[in-house]
Amino acid sequence: MGQQTIIKLVDGNLMPQLGLGVWQASNEQVVKAIHTALSVGYRSIDTAAIYHNETGVGKALRESDIPREEIFITTKLWNDRHHDAKIALQESLDRLQLDYIDLFLIHWPVPQQDKYVETWKQFIELKEAGLTRSIGVCNFHIEHLQRLFSETGIVPAINQIELHPLMQQRQLHSWNATHHIITESWSPLSRGGKGVFDHPLVESLAIKYDKTPAQIVIRWHLDSGMIAIPKSITPSRIKENFDVFDFRLEKEDLTTIARLDIGKRLGPNPDTYNLTVLNLG
């Protein structure tokens, strides 16, 4: 395997370009998955309060002999805590058993509440207090980002959005880049690769580069300047997803993958998603 690539954020902090997502994984599953990931070479873990597995993430970190400062930890503020981000972050830190996290994200803008600008002001204070090294957002559209910048003068380091070959969000990705915001892709493999891995175009690229379809798609994210956090609890898949640093896609192949974009959203639309209670059962 080649060397993991690192992205420099607008605030000067460094973030691994490929991380492990742990959505829908139990605390027990998370511990095993993180041990596998760290042994393979991952140094970035993406969790969230609403995933109910921060405790497992913390346990895995305590059991690892890798120094804390070498591991990049992201967690997120859920929609019902926009009014008290400081308390919510401290609760996450307690569950993770950490003194700080590397990246704190507003999980959704929740436009109906219209509190995300005030929340962002709290985030700026939390960064200044050293409780999080970097701050960012998830699922923010251009108009949401414009409000943050116009009312605080501070842009998020990261905008984590649904992004995969079937929904490439090129206008938003371009806007982020223009404003020095790194785009981070959630569901980068389009939830198990449905409609992507079996696409003739991706299959042909897998043959060309002697890689799996998943590795082709992850490499597309990295070569497009995005951070990707594919989720898996399967050891073989975790290893496969990381084995992408020994090749790059040629420019014409990146252009070809652009043709797969059909605007197919798998998750909620941020403009209308206002859920505060989430049943994960």
UniProtKB/TrEMBL annotation:
Gene3D superfamilies for this protein: NADP-dependent oxidoreductase domain
Domain of life: Bacteria
Enzyme Commission numbers on file: 1.1.1.274
Chain residues that bind substrate: H107
Catalytic residues (UniProt): Y51
GO molecular function: 2,5-didehydrogluconate reductase activity
InterPro entries in the record: AKR, Aldo/ket_reductase_CS, NAD(P)_OxRdtase_dom_sf, NADP_OxRdtase_dom
UniProtKB keywords: NADP, Oxidoreductase
Catalytic activity line of the entry: hydroxyacetone + NADP(+) = methylglyoxal + NADPH + H(+)
Pfam short name (any one): Aldo_ket_red
Ranges for domain NADP-dependent oxidoreductase: 18-261
Record site: Lowers pKa of active site Tyr: K76
Family designation: Belongs to the aldo/keto reductase family.
Protein name: 2,5-didehydrogluconate reductase A
Species this chain originates from: Xenorhabdus innexi
